[in-house]
Amino acid sequence: MVFFGFMFNYMLRVNLTIAIVEMVRGNNATVANATDSMEAVSERFTTADGRTWFVWDEHKQNLILGSFFWGYLMTELPGGRLAEVVGARRVLGVSMLLSSLLTLVTPVAANLSYLAIVALRAVIGFLLGVTWPAMLPMAAQWIPPADRSKFMSNMMASSLGAAVTMPICGQLLATWGWESTFYVTGGIGLAWSLLWFALIYDSPAQHPRISDEERRFIEQALGDSVRSKEKESLPVPWRQVLSSGPVWAIVLSHVASIYGFFTVVNQLPTFMKKVLHFNIKENGMASSLPYLGKYLMALGTGVIADYLKSRNKISTTAIRKIFTTFAVGIPGLLMAVQIFVGSDRVASVAIFTLALTFNGAVTAGYLGNGLDIAPNFSGTIFGIANMLSSLGGFLSTLMVGSLTYQNDSYGQWQIIFGILSGAYIFGAIIYLVLGTGELQPWNSPKGKGEKEPESYPLRSNAA
């Protein structure tokens, strides 16, 4: 359910990015010069065969596409904390359910006004912002320490979702028109949401169909590190969280990684088209390879990390540091190489594909590290990290825009590649210095009249 949930979550997020290419035609003169076979209405016109197109300038298109992130940023931290308090089943399930219903009415909003679709996408972003932070509190209740890296790789299905969504939506656009992309993706999300509520529960103790053997195995493997969902939720020890070196190791490495990811994914097509005169969006293989590679890397490194942990080969701290350095440091080195060989089309495609592929190893690195150091507050920690990393995505757009404004030369892009290299390497070094896999004492603060539970580092086989 997590694998398909994150794939469908990505569909709801990017369907408009793909559909808007077919939704928008021409410029304001198009409507003014509309023939008798077209019914022009303000910014919208309908052809004789019933197809509706819109005349939105670049400012309006960017406003529509960017509005998703207005709401997305607002719910990262609250979403993680809410999942810790009321459970991820409701938080994530309601988020996907309502987002799917709003996706189904997107064509109606578009026909009303571009402002209506801006508002609707902001609300969808608000709802989907809880997704990633909400999943960690559920993983803390269900996933034994020896299986957490493998589990986190399922969340990378969002990357695989990109490789699947683009061709599917492209076929829908060509066959049934742009409206079909919202009906199909919204319908898929709605079906998943109903299955989620039927099949998923917040903890083994709450699941009505789990066997006693499986429940005992999971609860014994988790030990005392995780607060039972049947008990009152713990207050967040904000002072300890915000002053914790291991927390900031997770946050800063995540920010650096996502900053690089957003820049590469969002700006690579522009660089390839304007500087190298090669439209990567028209090359389906070149477009999907980085996403596919990232998912396969996440899956493979997750298995390796959990194998090492279960065999007590090396410590959890060493595992997290090795894979974080691999996932964040190597893309930094590749961006440095890109500075010198980026004028070559083949080299650029290869470097960016490898950079995103290696980045998939974050599932065995920092991505699930909050479950190691503080499973009771893993949603809050991830919410902080994802909120700040989303801001990094905005900053990457501003950086590229300011450096290439009226000067889209290769020399300016070399500066961009240098900044990306520095950001990636900074994130890897910070994690090497501050990161740890040890359970933190503030994971189990004392409540009223409650004794401090025993804390110990998570072990690979507590059962």
Kindly list the characteristics that best describe this protein:
463 residues, mainly alpha, three-stranded antiparallel beta sheet, 20 helices, 3 strands, 2% strand, transmembrane, MFS_dom, MFS_Na/Anion_cotransporter, symport
Description:
This protein is mainly alpha-helical and 463 residues long. It is built from 20 helices and 3 strands. Strands 1-2-3 form a 3-stranded antiparallel sheet, with no helix packed on it. Helix 1 (2-23) runs antiparallel to helix 11 and helix 14 (245-274) packs parallel to helix 19 (378-404). The longest helix has 30 residues, at 245-274. The radius of gyration is 23 Å and the shape is globular. It starts with a helix and ends in a 29-residue tail after the last helix.
Strand content: under 5%
Rounded mean pLDDT is 83
| Element-by-element helix/strand order | HHEEEHHHHHHHHHHHHHHHHHH
Count of runs of 4 or more consecutive helical residues: 20
Helix content: over 70%
How would you sum up the major sheet?
Answer: 3 strands, antiparallel
The secondary structure category is mainly alpha
Unreliable stretches: 27-41, 447-463
Global outline: globular
Distance between the termini: 26 Å
Quaternary state of the chains: single chain
Please report the total strand number as a whole number.
Answer: 3
Strand numbers in spatial order across the main sheet? 1-2-3
> Compute the gyration radius: what is it?
23 Å
Membrane topology: Multi-pass membrane protein
Subcellular location: Membrane
Organism: Frankliniella occidentalis (Western flower thrips)
Keywords: Membrane, Signal, Symport, Transmembrane, Transmembrane helix, Transport
